[in-house]
Amino acid sequence: MTIDADLVVIGFGKGGKTLAATLGKQGKRVVMIERSAAMYGGTCINIGCVPTKSMVFQAEEVSVHPPEPSVYTNAIRATADLTSGMRGENFAMLDTIPSVDVLTGTASFVDPHTVTVDTADGIVTVIGRTIVIGTGSEPTWPDVPGLRDNPRAVTSTDLLSTEDLPARLVVLGGGYVGLEFAAMYAAYGAEVTVLERHDAVLTREDDDIASCATELLAEAGVHVVTSAQVTAVDGGTVHYEVGGAPTSVDADLILVALGRHPVTADLGLANAGVATRPDGSIEVDEHLRTNVAHVFAVGDVNGGPQFTYVSLDDYRIVADQLTGAGSRSTTDRRAVPFSLFMTPPLSRVGLTEREAKAAGHRVKVAALPVAKMATVPRARIVHQAKGMMKAVVDADTDEILGAALLSYDSHEVINTVALAMRHGITASTLRDEIYTHPSMTEAFNQLLGALA
């Protein structure tokens, strides 16, 4: 079977599926290729943002500590029901468009315009005038003896489908995924140890923010070991060294959270002449076009920030190339926020104080513990007054350079800061705005009033 298409999208992630739906609704012949029916809708809704935040939310709802093991099991099942429903909705979003075909199977390039798809019903050949690659990323496994084929070693994907709470969880890696899972599983009653190879976690944050976050993790029951070099895994025992001194920790499950790499190895990109970087990511220009003019790459696979909302912006850029003026590019992006969903969440945008000073700015800084912010009763109302808020401002121009919010609802509030930064709203203006009460956003009245 051969299909001739205006657009071929490989990977059902945010950028690709949105582009497929948009062009399909315009009557273009579109083929969406996804290697697994369990991944309709992409990483975010199936094994990433949605299920993890569902698990975090349900952990925060626990009223008795430690909770009964059934609380965790029920949360896993409720999360599976949530993602299953969203997966079906995402499939229907494309399947109901007459000019769109969804093929389930492994895709591989034959030449720059031709892709074969190994489906359950046989090989399908797809010829595309435009091809968009959005195959995402997957967890990276380190070369540690006894780890790779160990039945107790799991990825975040595996852990999200494990219905029995591990009594002892060892997390390899103190990055954002590792810390998010560590905090989550500690809340469900697991004994959690994080092994981080660097001398601290959250090293990209200012020391005061990182210190506060580390203290909150410790209060939640997470044991963080820094400067830990894992040497081997023997069954459920993880061997590591700190300062050359050997030690070990026992685990029921070992979560490998040491970063992710682009999924490109089996795409046959060489057959299409598409250039990649040493890490496997696809080289693109500011319009997300590869070195092959009609081939684009969106989302994690192009080596950019691994966020769903960045993939959505990738869609906007490619759509502008295909149906618009062609002027939108990655250079338009500024003040892109991100969040680490511990409890409370840590959200940041822009420069840290350290980065701002290194860039030559003369800065004013405000950093306040949430518990001491009298004008923010919302945090007390919801019994989440832990954490701190920090803003960094250019002392000469009053420009907001960055903010770090380790507080309740920070993942919502940070968007206000990002919007202000993108549109040149000064710190003084944000300080003197009228906000709803009681809300976390009104913290800017007091926080920015404390700049010094």
UniProtKB/TrEMBL annotation:
<feature type="binding site">
    <location>
        <position position="259"/>
    </location>
    <ligand>
        <name>NAD(+)</name>
    </ligand>
</feature>
<dbReference type="InterPro" id="IPR016156">
    <property type="entry name" value="FAD/NAD-linked_Rdtase_dimer_sf"/>
</dbReference>
<dbReference type="Pfam" id="PF02852">
    <property type="entry name" value="Pyr_redox_dim"/>
</dbReference>
<feature type="binding site">
    <location>
        <begin position="135"/>
        <end position="137"/>
    </location>
    <ligand>
        <name>FAD</name>
    </ligand>
</feature>
<dbReference type="InterPro" id="IPR036188">
    <property type="entry name" value="FAD/NAD-bd_sf"/>
</dbReference>
<feature type="disulfide bond" description="Redox-active">
    <location>
        <begin position="44"/>
        <end position="49"/>
    </location>
</feature>
<comment type="similarity">
    <text>Belongs to the class-I pyridine nucleotide-disulfide oxidoreductase family.</text>
</comment>
<keyword id="KW-0560">Oxidoreductase</keyword>
<feature type="domain" description="FAD/NAD(P)-binding">
    <location>
        <begin position="6"/>
        <end position="311"/>
    </location>
</feature>
<keyword id="KW-1015">Disulfide bond</keyword>
<keyword id="KW-0274">FAD</keyword>
<feature type="domain" description="Pyridine nucleotide-disulphide oxidoreductase dimerisation">
    <location>
        <begin position="336"/>
        <end position="446"/>
    </location>
</feature>
<dbReference type="Pfam" id="PF07992">
    <property type="entry name" value="Pyr_redox_2"/>
</dbReference>
<dbReference type="GO" id="GO:0003955">
    <property type="term" value="F:NAD(P)H dehydrogenase (quinone) activity"/>
</dbReference>
<dbReference type="GO" id="GO:0050660">
    <property type="term" value="F:flavin adenine dinucleotide binding"/>
</dbReference>
<dbReference type="InterPro" id="IPR004099">
    <property type="entry name" value="Pyr_nucl-diS_OxRdtase_dimer"/>
</dbReference>
<dbReference type="InterPro" id="IPR023753">
    <property type="entry name" value="FAD/NAD-binding_dom"/>
</dbReference>
<keyword id="KW-0676">Redox-active center</keyword>
<feature type="binding site">
    <location>
        <position position="300"/>
    </location>
    <ligand>
        <name>FAD</name>
    </ligand>
</feature>
<keyword id="KW-0547">Nucleotide-binding</keyword>
<dbReference type="InterPro" id="IPR001100">
    <property type="entry name" value="Pyr_nuc-diS_OxRdtase"/>
</dbReference>
<keyword id="KW-0521">NADP</keyword>
<feature type="binding site">
    <location>
        <position position="53"/>
    </location>
    <ligand>
        <name>FAD</name>
    </ligand>
</feature>
<feature type="binding site">
    <location>
        <begin position="173"/>
        <end position="180"/>
    </location>
    <ligand>
        <name>NAD(+)</name>
    </ligand>
</feature>
<feature type="binding site">
    <location>
        <position position="196"/>
    </location>
    <ligand>
        <name>NAD(+)</name>
    </ligand>
</feature>
<protein>
    <submittedName>
        <fullName>Pyridine nucleotide-disulfide oxidoreductase</fullName>
    </submittedName>
</protein>
<dbReference type="GO" id="GO:0016668">
    <property type="term" value="F:oxidoreductase activity, acting on a sulfur group of donors, NAD(P) as acceptor"/>
</dbReference>
<feature type="active site" description="Proton acceptor">
    <location>
        <position position="437"/>
    </location>
</feature>
<keyword id="KW-0520">NAD</keyword>
<keyword id="KW-0285">Flavoprotein</keyword>
<dbReference type="InterPro" id="IPR012999">
    <property type="entry name" value="Pyr_OxRdtase_I_AS"/>
</dbReference>
